[in-house]
Amino acid sequence: MSRPRAPGTRTPVTLAVPALLAIAFLLLPLTGILARTEWGELGTHLTSPEVTVALRLSLLVSFCALGLSLVLGVPLAWLLARVSFPGKALVRSLVLLPMVLPPTVGGVALLLGFGRRGLLGPWLENDLGIVLPFHTSGAVVAATFVAMPFLVISLEGTIAGLRTSYEETAASLGASPVRVFLTVTLPLVAPGLAAGAALTWARALGEFGATITFAGNLPGTTQTLPLEVYLLLQDQPQAATSVSLLLLAVAMAVLVALRGRWTGTTAARPGNGAARPGNADDRPAEENEKPAEVTPDAPVATTAAPSAPQRQSPLRAEVSGFNDVTLDAPAGTTIAVVGPNGAGKTTLLRALLGLTPRAHARLRLGDVDVTNLPPHRRGVAWVPQDGALFPHLSALANTAYGLRTQGVRRTEARRGAQEWLDRLGVGDLARRRPSQLSGGQAQRVALARALAARPRLLLLDEPLAALDQTTRARVRRMLRAHLEGFGGVCLMVTHDPVEAISLGGRVLVLDDGRTLQDDTPGEVSRHPRSPWVARMLGRNAWTCTATSDGTLSLAAGGTLVAADPATPGTTTLAIIAPEAVSLHRERPSGSPRNNWPGTVREITAVGSRLRVVVASDQVPDLVAEITPQAAAELGLADGTPVWTSVKATEITLVTP
Ligand SMILES: Nc1ncnc2c1ncn2[C@@H]1O[C@H](COP(=O)(O)OP(=O)(O)OP(=O)(O)O)[C@@H](O)[C@H]1O
């Protein structure tokens, strides 16, 4: 269906004409082949003994070259995409070189490298008995040399585009780097891998220059189809046209099957709708895995059952670098980590996982010092902000992943996983893929997956952020119940004050990577040590300086009277609970000494109460919390003039 064209989007003639010429330039030779093919003789030409032998050899050589490219090229692509090392740009240029090198020059280079008089040739021949020139293996080497770059660059792009949180989460569930690569990375990049493999095969099938230079042109041994075309062209041009048509059809079929994947137009999409593995089998890839060996340091699950007693693992951590935090927490503690954007909350979690060079954690969990252990052997499970459920595995296989990496047998791991999913209220979704789950359901599966792995330390990065208010309250209750039975320590990053207060046995406030406050929720809420925390908790917080006449001078202008004035000259934080702010239509005449005129700027509902923001030119904005009935009696609306008053005894002074 043609889309209506927006005005002003006419294609300029100066661009359209050369573009059309380019299309004609590419099309004409192909049309020539089609036009000159003797269709009646096509069958005879393609079934002649020489062509059949060359075709068979071409298939053998191209598939062997593909196999060799996969074995060598896939790890190389991973290395280029995932590992930083000196000279990486040079290695990438080296990979690309055969794509731009004249194939005959490639052949000469191969001769000088692997030929009988080349650098490696004598050793290959004398010690291993391998002679490449004039052998089919030489044709395979030549085809691999020119074709492998297609696989490497295609796959490197796909791996680089894959969110690292999948692989990092897999590691946090106990999977070794090789296991992560095989069970997470490879299935997720399968479309990119297939595209690269198809191109590599097509390129190997059409290889001519390097093959003839390096491996020669021996019928039945190195004379592949393109070489046969070259020979036929001299004696039987019609047969050459027919074979060319065959090669053209194969190349075209590969490109049509790829439909732009290689150029990135339909590249693998990470995320919930992420790259689907080529495997249409609904059986999760994880299920085909053998359980890993249980290493002495690995977090060993004694049983998959969630009701099994949890190891008691207190935490001691000293984090340096971007973060400067010391944490000591007995087993079973849940610490809510709060702080403004960029305060270093995620960096702290990543440091504890051993996943960032930006901060280093000396970490002891129970009686094990895990500081020098790689992430997959720390027993630290992580639920990143997006949950990072593996898109190619069902909810059940996702949840069983951690147990499988710990060596738990498949049936037992699946039973344990099902129990955890049931506990979190998503048991009936066990067979669904992450793309078939809502955000909230996916979060619950991600939690089940982390808890099922029975970690010593559980790290939750905004675990309830994706949930709506109702589900959030329900999951919060569930989470609290599960965290109570969790024998390790849980660190939970949150921006939600209710979550911080209700789920955290402790609240750790970070600012600029450092600990600003580390206290019980009650203490933090009564005495927040920064305006940010106070505001997060819904309190009014004004920075002020005590004056010699007993009042407080607000940094933003205005004065305040508190019952217990601070020492003159000290800077302090005046905290006023919104419930302590009264609103009046007339100037109040009673005891409060803090009365300010203002106007209502905003009214919002918070549960069964209303939060009223009052703007005043005497003090900063003040938040009051009143009942809807009181608001109705006062006739409050946006812009209504009001008086605010706060008793001096309701003002808490906190020294930051
Ligand atoms: N890979 C990185 N390289 C350099 N700086 C980084 C990197 N990751 C994070 N930062 C910076 O480190 C600081 C802390 O980031 P971090 O993600 O830990 O903050 P946060 O408290 O989790 O923030 P938010 O609440 O926005 O998620 C920020 O200033 C951020 O810009």
UniProtKB/TrEMBL annotation:
Keywords: ATP-binding, Membrane, Molybdenum, Nucleotide-binding, Transmembrane, Transmembrane helix, Transport. GO terms for cellular component: plasma membrane. It is a multi-pass membrane protein. It comes from the Bacteria. Residues 589-655 form the Mop domain. The keyword Nucleotide-binding applies. Residues 55-256 form the ABC transmembrane type-1 domain. The keyword Transferase does not apply. Residues 266-278, 293-309 have a biased composition (Low complexity). Residues 279-292 have a biased composition (Basic and acidic residues). The chain crosses the membrane at residues 59-81, 93-114, 134-159, 180-202, 239-258. It is found in: Cell membrane; Membrane. GO terms for molecular function: ATP binding; ATP hydrolysis activity; molybdate ion transmembrane transporter activity. InterPro entries: AAA+_ATPase, ABC_SmlMolc_Importer, ABC_transporter-like_ATP-bd, ABC_transporter-like_CS, MetI-like, MetI-like_sf, Mo/tungstate-bd_C_term_dom, ModB_ABC. Residues 266-315 are annotated as: Disordered. NCBIfam families: Mo_ABC_porter (TIGR01581), modB_ABC (TIGR02141). Belongs to the binding-protein-dependent transport system permease family. This is ABC transporter ATP-binding protein/permease.
